[in-house]
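Intended use. Records like the one below are meant for learning the mapping from a protein sequence to its folded structure. Do not use them to infer anything beyond what is encoded.
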Amino acid sequence: MKKLLSLLAALLIGGLIAYLLIPKNQAAPAFSLQDLNGKTIDNSSLNGKVTFINFWFPSCPGCVSEMPKVIKMSNDYQGKPFQVLGIAVPVDPIESVRAYAETRQMHFPVMFDTGNVVSKAFNTSVYPTSVLINKKGEVLKTFVGEPDFQVLYQTIDSELAKD
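Structure written out for the chain above:
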């Protein structure tokens, strides 16, 4: 009996330690940028939506490679509480970003991160980098490089199913 109680106590203590050490989702860093149409996008824009923030620039080969998939994903989830936000880091001039967004029919908000303020807040340094945020505004996952879109869709579907 003593051994059983000791074992149960050890399991309980181990479970509590694991619970405390498992990282919890962190709130997305505070940000505020105007999109290419002059509308302000900030953390309040995240409320109640699963959000995929894509940090990119037009002359980035990896960014150009993944962008058709990002655009498709935005279209696939149209009408659902999901959004894509494109944040162009200031490697290329804003005119190039505007032209790229227009010719690729990027129908989601695209912002230009003058001074890398938002990209630094999200701790990005390699592009493309994307961040998936839940409906509560918490960072779920950061993708450096192109994500596995099949797995990403499954994660988004799972998050959309949550209240």
